[in-house]
Amino acid sequence: MSYNKVVPALVKSSYDNIKRICLSHGRFRSTVASTQRDEVEGGKEKQVDECTVVKAVQIEIDFDNTHEAYKSKDNIELLRSLLVFKLCTFDFLVDKNKELMDLSKKVFGQRLFERLMKMTFYGQFVAGEDHNSIKPLIHKNQAFGVGSVLDYSVEEDLTQEEAEKKEMEQHYVSCCFLTLGVDHREKKYKAHRQFGDRRGGVVSARTYFYADEAKCDNQMETFLNCIKASGGASVDGFSAIKMTALGRPQFLLQFSAVLVKWRRFFNLLAAQQGKSGMDALEQKLELEQLKIGCAYRTEFDFEYVIYIMSPRTIDLLDWNSLINDRTSISNLLVIPNVETGQLEPLLRKFTVEEEKQMKRMLQRVDVLAKHAVDNGVRLMVDAEQTYFQPAISRLTLEMQRIFNREKPIIFNTYQCYLKEAYDNVSVDMELSRREGWYFGAKLVRGAYMYQERSRAEEIGYEDPINPDYEATNRMYHKCLEFVLEEINHNRKANVMVASHNEDTVKFTLEKMNQMGLSPTENKVYFGQLLGMCDQISFPLGQAGFPVYKYVPYGPVNEVIPYLSRRALENRGFMKGSQRERSLLWKELKRRLLNGQILYKPVY
C-alpha cells in the first residue's frame, strides 16, 4: 500500500473539512491568545460572539475565613473530617486500609460495618448510595454556592492477577491475526503483562477492564443514569465519563499509535524544511517543497493537495484533517514508514466483529453526548494513560465539533504533568477557533505519574512526565493563562480549574481580575473532590464563582476500592500540609467560644 494510493483517498474524503478550514484562513488569529481587552466602541462594551462582556468587579477571596469555609457543616461533620484526615496520616492504616476494612466487615457484620463507614470514610468522601439519597447533600451544597459533578463510583474489586489476565486476554484477541506476523507499533502502544493491572501506582482515578460488549453497554447505562441524575439535581450540572469503559481499550491503543506516528511524520517533514524546534502550530509545511522533495508522492497527489489548500502551506491541523472520521476504521490503521516511503498496516485489517466493536464504542459515545444535551448536562471526558490519550482526545474533539456549536457541552481533560500539555491545549484551541465551536477544557495536574514513569523506564521509551512538581506547576499555569487569554479575547473558551492547590486558585483569581473576567459570565469554573478542600470550594461559591464538587455515590460495599484510593491520596496530601486540619480546628474552637455547640447550617 503506497502513499500514492492511500493519501489521495484520505485527502479526498477530507475535502469538505479542509475546504471549510481554508476558506476561513483570513479570520485566523495568532495561536498566542491576545492579552488585550476588546476595545470599547462608542462608550459601550463591545459584544463578542453574541456574548455580552461584563465589566468585572475586583474580587478578593479570604481562604482563611473558616466561618465562610465551613458554614455548611455542623460540628459533627467537622469532627468527622478531623478524624478521617488524621487517620490518613498513619502509614500502617493507609497501607493496610483494604485489609482492615475487610476485617472490620467480618468482625462487626455487614450492617454495623456500613454504619461505621458512613460515620467515617464513606460519609466524608461519598454522597450516598443512589440517586435519591444524594439529593439532600447536592441541594445543601447548592444553597452555599457549590454545584456537583456526579460520578457513580462503583468499581470492580479485582486481584492483580485477575486484572492482568483481563488486560492481556483482550490484547491477545486483538493481535492474534497479524499479517505475516508483522507488528509496526512502538513498544509504548502495546500491552505489557507487568503493567496489565492499570491500577498500579494510581490513587486518584478509576480503572475499567474490558470483559465483553454487554459489560460496555451496562457501563454506558450507568453513565446515562448519572447524566439523568445530574440533570434532575441542578440546572447546570456536569457528569464525567471514561472512554475505556465504553469499548475495547486495545482500539484506543491502536488508534493512538496511528495518530502519534502521523504527527511524528509531520514533524520529520517540518525538520527537513528547517522548521524543527518551533511550537506545534508555528510549523507550516511548504507544499511546493514537499512536491519537489518527497520521492514517494506523485505529481498528481501534490497538485490535488495544492488545489484544495490556500494558502499553500499545511500546518498540523490541516495535516490531522487528512485522517477523517468518515474514513473506514480499518483503513485508518496505517502508518508511514519514513525509510521506505510506504504506508504500512499497523497490524492488519480488523475482523468483521472487531469493526463492529469499534463502531459500537463510537456509537456509545454519541449516545452519551446526545443524552447530555437533552438533559442540559455538560459532559467531561476524563484523561487516561498517555498510550490511550491521543485516541481519547481525538474522539473527544470529534464530539466537540458536533455538540459544542451553540454552547460548551463536551469538555476534554488535559493533564498538565505531561511535557506536551501546552501543545495539546494550543492545537485543540486553534481548531475550535477555525471551525467556530466552543472550546471546553478541564485542567488537572494528572493521576498516573508513578505508573507512567515506571512503565517508560521499564519498557524503554521517553518519560512523558515533566521532571518535577515545579515544572508541572509552571505547565499548569501556562496552559491556564493561555485559555484565560482566549476567554478574554472572544468568550468562546471555557475552562474547569480542577485543582486542590490554593496557589493555583489564587493565580486564577489574579489573572481573572487583571483581565476583567467576571465570575458571572460562567466561563471559568473551579472543581475539587467531595470531602476535600472545603476552605477553597465554599468561599469561592459564596463569592459567586462557579465551583463544583466531584460527588461520588454508590453502595458502601461497591465503593470500597474508591475509598481505598481516597485514603492513599489523602496520606500524601495531609502529610504535605496540615493547613486543612488547622482550619477545621480553628472553626471548631470559634464555635465553642461563641456558644455554638449545637450549630446547624441554615439554608
UniProtKB/TrEMBL annotation:
<dbReference type="InterPro" id="IPR002872">
    <property type="entry name" value="Proline_DH_dom"/>
</dbReference>
<keyword id="KW-0496">Mitochondrion</keyword>
<keyword id="KW-0560">Oxidoreductase</keyword>
<dbReference type="InterPro" id="IPR015659">
    <property type="entry name" value="Proline_oxidase"/>
</dbReference>
<comment type="similarity">
    <text>Belongs to the proline oxidase family.</text>
</comment>
<dbReference type="GO" id="GO:0010133">
    <property type="term" value="P:L-proline catabolic process to L-glutamate"/>
</dbReference>
<protein>
    <recommendedName>
        <fullName>Proline dehydrogenase</fullName>
        <ecNumber>1.5.5.2</ecNumber>
    </recommendedName>
</protein>
<comment type="function">
    <text>Converts proline to delta-1-pyrroline-5-carboxylate.</text>
</comment>
<dbReference type="GO" id="GO:0071949">
    <property type="term" value="F:FAD binding"/>
</dbReference>
<dbReference type="GO" id="GO:0004657">
    <property type="term" value="F:proline dehydrogenase activity"/>
</dbReference>
<dbReference type="Pfam" id="PF01619">
    <property type="entry name" value="Pro_dh"/>
</dbReference>
<keyword id="KW-0285">Flavoprotein</keyword>
<feature type="domain" description="Proline dehydrogenase">
    <location>
        <begin position="280"/>
        <end position="572"/>
    </location>
</feature>
<comment type="pathway">
    <text>Amino-acid degradation; L-proline degradation into L-glutamate; L-glutamate from L-proline: step 1/2.</text>
</comment>
<keyword id="KW-0274">FAD</keyword>
<keyword id="KW-0809">Transit peptide</keyword>
<keyword id="KW-0642">Proline metabolism</keyword>
<dbReference type="InterPro" id="IPR029041">
    <property type="entry name" value="FAD-linked_oxidoreductase-like"/>
</dbReference>
<dbReference type="GO" id="GO:0005759">
    <property type="term" value="C:mitochondrial matrix"/>
</dbReference>
<keyword id="KW-0007">Acetylation</keyword>
